[in-house]
Structures are given as C-alpha cells and as structure tokens.
Amino acid sequence: FNVSALKTDLTTDDTLVVELRVIIRGNESDIDIAEIPTLRIRGFDLISTGSSSMRSLNNDLSALTKTTTYYFRPTAAGSFSIPTLTLDYVDTRTGAITTLGSASIPLIVSAEGSGQVSVESMLLLIIIIIMVVTIATVVFARMKRGRAARKIDDTVTSPEEKLKTVLDLVEVKLAHGRIADGQTMLTEAIEQYIESKYSIRLSGLERESCCKAMGDVGVPNILMDKYIQLIEWVQGLRFGGMPASEPEIEAMLASLRQVVEHH
User: Fold this and answer.
1) pLDDT for the residue 80
2) Which of 64, 65, 157, 195 gives 24 a disulfide partner, CB atoms 3.0 to 4.6 angstroms apart?
3) CA separation (Å) from 236 to 20, 35, 142?
4) Is the confidence at residue 102, as pLDDT, over 70?
5) How far apart are the first and last CA of the chain?
6) Left (φ > 0), alpha (ψ -120 to 50) or beta: where does 50 sit?
7) What is the 3-state secondary structure (H, E, C) of the chain?
C-alpha cells in the first residue's frame, strides 16, 4: 500500500497528481481488502479520478496492482500536506485483520508568476523534445527489426530455423547490454514462430484467449508458458517497469532452444 505524488512543489496553476497503489501478491481470494480510502486534501479541490489494474508474474508468484489516480487543483498558495491514509485487509484463511498506513507528504504551493511561467514553458519544451526523440528512436528501431525480419524470411524457410536465427540475434543484443531490445525481439519472434508453425493468430488477444487458441492447436505447454511469461515481461516494460534480468533472458533462450530442437 503506497501513496505518492507526481510532484510536491507546485504553483496555483498546476495540477496535483496523487497515486494510491495497492499490490496483492499471491492468491487474491486469500485477501479481503476494505474499501479504498477517499482522499481529501486541505487547500485543494478534487478535479477527477481514474483507476487501473495490472497483473504480473515473477518467479511463479502472481501479483495484482490496483492504482487509483487523483487529480487536484490548488485553491490557494501556502504549505499543505497529503494526509496519512490507512487501509485494512483481512486474511480470509486466518481471520487476521491488518492495517496499513501511508506517510504524510508535505506540499508547497506558490502563487503563479511571470518568472514561473517562463520556467514551466521551458520545461514543457524540453519534455516535448524528449518525447519526439524517443518516438523517432522507437520507430527507427522497429524499422530496423522489420528489415532484419525480412532478411531472415528471404533466406530461411522453416519456423524453427527462423526462430534459431532470432535467438542468435538476441544473444548479440544481450552481449551489448541492450536487454530491453532483446526482450522485445524475443517476444515478437516467439509469437511469429507459434503463429507460423500452428497456423493461428495471437496478436491482439488477451491472455485467456491466447492460452485457449494455443491449447486448441496443440502448442506444447512449455512453449505456451514461455510465451505468456514473455508477454508479461513486455507489458511490465510498457507500464514503466524494468526489463527482465540478463540471467532470466539467457535462461529463457536456453529453454527455447531445447523446445525448438525437439519440435
């Protein structure tokens, strides 16, 4: 249970963004969580709220992260704080009740002025430039992967040979420290391998639909498990998480080589 603010030094024209995050690890049915506490902050008006949830799997332990986001507008300049919040949950196996608490977060709100506008405008310009450069880098990387994939298609015919070639390319990326790129390339390659070998479509399907589609055509369980794990890794990256570690990806490569060799 965690409460955080995007930034704590604001002006009266800023929007305060507060995230309340609850992480449930293991079996959800073992935990009965009380209603998420309502957040009110003195000196701020609530504009809107939003919520999201994300599932992840790490070392065979599932986790569900529920995030509630609050958007506030300051009503005056001064010193304020996000109050301490508490959250109760019950362990349904033992009946034990546990109370979790967050720390108070101090906030400073200053009156908007011409100098502040200039600074914020400059920061906004820098952010826009970073976003443009990032998007251009991603597009260029995808174009390079597309060209590499087309070269592989021109020289290799069987799905197994195509996958082996990509596994070699991923090892090269790991050797150069490009773990996130290698992880993404590996996920795309496994998806293309399964689609090509078993004549099914996986792109765009939810997890349950993917598992059903693969099970219906006889995809081996070990290959299904590896594909789902890769998908969860990539989803973690999209939500700002860290890529899988190099040893984890190397172990994945070794397992996939064994799968390909036996099929």
Assistant:
1) 95
2) 64
3) 18, 26, 19
4) yes
5) 45
6) beta
7) CEEEECCCEEECCCCEEEEEEEEEECCHHHEEECCCCCCCCCCEEEEEEEEEEEEEEECCEEEEEEEEEEEEEECCCEEEEECCCEEEEEECCCCCEEEEECCCEEEEEECCCHHHHHHHHHHHHHHHHHHHHHHHHHHHHHHHHHHHHHHHHHHCCCHHHHHHHHHHHHHHHHHCCCHHHHHHHHHHHHHHHHHHHHCCCCCCCCHHHHHHHHHHCCCCHHHHHHHHHHHHHHHHHHCCCCCCCHHHHHHHHHHHHHHHHCC
Measured CA to CA, the distance from residue 85 to residue 71 in angstroms comes to 17
Longest dimension (CA), the chain: 69
Give residue 10's Cα distance to chain centre: 27
Q: How confident is the model at residue 263 (pLDDT cuts 50, 70, 90)?
A: low
pLDDT of residue 115: 46
Question: Looking at this protein, which amino acid is placed at residue 186?
Answer: L
**Location of structure tokens 């300051």:** 74
Strands 86-91 and 61-74: unpaired
User: Which amino acid is located at 8 in the chain?
Assistant: T
